[in-house]
Amino acid sequence: MSLPIFKLITSTLCLILSSLSLLAIQEAKPKEDPVITNPLISLEGSIHFDNGDSISGKILNWSKSNISVSSPDLLEPVTFSNSNILKITFNDNQTTNKANPHLDETILIMNNRDNEVGKNGMIRGSLVDITPQKIKLNTAYAGEISVMRKFISKMEIDPKKGYLYYGPKSLEHWHNNSLTKGWKFENNSLISSRTANGNIAKNINLPDQTSISFDLSWKKSPYISLFLYSSDHEMARPDNYYKLSLDRGRWLLNKYIDGRRVNTTRILKEKKLLLRKNAFGRPRITPLKSFNKLHAQYSIYIDKTKGLFHIYQNGSKLISFLDADPKTKKFGTAMHLLNNSRYPVRIKNLRISKWNGHIPNKINEKTFSSLKDAKQPKVEGEHILLKNGDFLFGKINKVDNGLVEIETKHAPLKLPLNRLRSIDITASIKKEEPIKDIDDIKCYYKDKGWVILKLIALGEKSFTAYHQAIGEKKFNYNAFKRIDLNIYDEEANSKRKPDTW
């Protein structure tokens, strides 16, 4: 065979082999590129599998079918199938994007999917504007978001203006009065130690009329002690303070003046409680209903000059105390948080503000239902519930400089946004539910609530996702503590466990 013919045959074979290789690559490549992003830098956490296993490390790539991760426990990066992953929890780097503490927070409760009762996501931010089609929020985690009203069932307004304290955001400004560390900060929460009792304090400048609220979770029984109006936040046992304690379901109030307990406090009124006496003849309060859940929201309303203390659990009044001889001159303005290592607890959403003296009414969705079912002329617009328990029917036209313009049947109104408690939108617009997508993920905010999104792309500090109500947006990782996968898989959902702390 001559050399030119050999070269021709060789070239032809190379061309054929190259074409076959290219064809094979093209056929092997999926219809959709599985790699969503380049290797990440700051996304670290733990992957939890459906068999109970977990692995911690750095997420390198995340596709619709698998996740690649590097870990100190692995010799080299490993790729896992998404079908076996329940959730991903992110490490808490304590650098959450901070919302403006002086802006009221608006929570948009989204319509659920397929009428799944109680499974409503939420979108949170400060209210910018309201139009007939959309509600515009400014968020710390995704910038400005316009949400289509037809996907919203209700608006809740949380007034932040005037808060003396809103957190926790860290332990930095709390003074530790213990030799050991009885508290730690994690995911916008204060978590008590299981090995050491703790006493942390902060001079919050508590006014004579104070409102305190917080979410409390526990492992065994609810236990927390508050030193209120402490005269010295840098002392474990100040000379003057009120000690308000939740001890395994029983609320107790004691007063200390010049380092000694003064027996001037008594129960003013009890509701759904059994009043008993201990071995020393002092009253013990035992709720009729056992604490079958491991969390509750508590609100405490105090008028120091009158010696009044009102305590609410999940919006219902539990008990009131009265100090028959309040002596306000010796008290201070600080507050202490004390734990018992035998009963670990977690505190979230601690909010302290000046109390206006108004006792809140227990009004919820049932109130709106009764209003809707009542025989009265049909009124177009929203059902608006005010902070003082009043309600009105009207149409919100716009929000301008903290004022809400409401068109009612009788007259147009302008109300401060922080006077509003919630707005039922379902009466004013046709409801539409978001469509389920196999690629949906469930993203849990660090402090409260969650939102379901369709993941599109991952970046170094944020991920791009889609929601029918808001379109495509970039979300900062630091706003979330956990992301669930395979959220519509019944078998996977049966294996999910609540967040641990």
Give the topology.
Elements: H1 3-28, E1 44-49, E2 54-62, E3 66-70, E4 78-81, E5 85-90, E6 105-110, E7 122-130, E8 134-139, E9 143-148, E10 152-158, E11 163-167, E12 175-176, E13 183-186, E14 189-192, E15 199-203, E16 209-218, E17 223-230, E18 241-247, E19 250-257, E20 260-262, E21 265-270, E22 273-277, E23 283-287, E24 295-303, E25 308-313, E26 316-323, E27 334-338, E28 345-354, H2 365-373, E29 382-386, E30 391-400, E31 403-407, E32 412-416, E33 420-424, E34 440-445, E35 450-458, E36 462-467, E37 471-476, E38 480-484, H3 490-495
Antiparallel strand pairs: 1-2, 1-5, 2-3, 3-4, 5-38, 6-7, 6-10, 7-8, 8-9, 10-33, 11-28, 12-15, 13-14, 14-28, 15-27, 16-24, 16-28, 17-18, 17-27, 18-19, 19-20, 21-26, 22-23, 24-25, 25-26, 29-30, 29-33, 30-31, 31-32, 34-35, 34-38, 35-36, 36-37
In words, what does this structure look like?
- With 501 residues, the chain is mainly β.
- The protein has 3 domains: 28-91 and 435-501, no CATH class; 105-159 and 361-424, SH3 type barrels, CATH 2.30.30.100; 163-354, Jelly Rolls.
- The protein contains 3 helices and 38 strands.
- The strands form 5 sheets. It has a 10-stranded antiparallel β-sheet. A 10-stranded antiparallel β-sheet has the order 9-8-7-6-10-33-29-30-31-32, with no helix packed on it.
- Strand 13 and strand 14 form a beta hairpin.
- The longest helix has 26 residues, at 3-28.
- It is globular and about 65 Å long.
